[in-house]
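Work Package 3 (structural annotation) set out to generate three-dimensional models for the target panel prioritized at the project kickoff. During this period the team completed the workflow that converts sequence records into discrete structure tokens, so that structures can be stored uniformly alongside our sequence database. As a representative example, we reproduce one entry of 383 residues exactly as it appears in the project archive.
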Amino acid sequence: MIASSPPRVVHGLPHLPATERWAAEPSAAPLVAAQQALTQAATANPQLQFAALQAAALLAAYHDRWAAAAWQPCEIAGRFQVPLVNPDTGRPSRTFIHAGAYAGIVQIGERRWLLEFRTTSNEIAWPQAPFWQSLNFDAQTAAYLLAHDRAGQSLAGVAYDVVRRPEIRPRLVPKGSARRWPAENLGTLIEIEQGTYWGQPLPGHAGGFIDADGRETLELFGLRLASDARSRPDWYFQRQLTPRNDEQLRRQASDLWQTAGAIRLARRFAQHYRNPAACWNYHSPCEFLNHCSQSQPAEEPGTDRSAPANQLRSSLAHEAREALTHSRLRCFQLCRRKHFYRYELGMRSLQAPSAAGQFGRLMHLALAAWWRTRLEAAPTEEK
């Protein structure tokens, strides 16, 4: 008889015995570090538990696929702050600077490339998929390449490290049949009674593995997702190099300068108009929808009803108001009113990110820990 119970949580994440086989291997240090980063995130915020479980379940297969790859880290979690330059005159802006954070830099052969993490729900296994084609003119990475040019560190292009978001979700566990071969009973109640699930040993703790409604606990779901990732690595994990395109970089430099000018004029003439088409983005409402719809008074910043807008404005560091990051530029292009609230007034909402956003942030966190550990273990001459 298989009892039902809530998922057993160990330090913020359901138990994933599939990763324990790595713990004693020196080469597993990046995987262990990534898992620890996810555990800490899920412990600090239990609402992230499911997204953290998804990322953790994929990591062992990610490690299997890329641990021996030729990409060698030179820098991880880098930041830049460089002058914003007029591409026509070569003169720097007197108002704004160009700033940002990037995943890192990797050495591939004799050349250095900008490392960029991405998560997506799109097809990535086919090299000519629309996802990859769109990256040939990606504004974010073009801006990062420009910044490195300004800093005297020209890079060969962008090395994309992409993870596809899982589509599978916890499901009802089928009964299975004693008449079937063992391979046909994978993922069934019969297999669970034998102490495994999708071929992976179940933990020896007391308690059930099936929720009250007959569905997988998070523990079992993690094992199934880990098995799926190992059986379909091309579906989940891809890397691709996009060489720099100097013409695209020139266009990006012009776009940066022109957008900075538009922000300056919007500030001067109070041109912070709304874009109703941006009220819903990626199937989620804008964090300032209540303000724009006047459900809340516009002068109330974020969710803090005690701080007036002028007080919040004065609390913003001058450097933050004059730094142009990719996120800020994209926000301005999407909706001027949102940009005004977020970057001129410093308003922030406590609205939780979408499920896709949670997974993306946690996977980036885990990948940064994985790459950083590889960097720390690399010989000094390779850094």
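Residues 9-65+166-234 form one domain.
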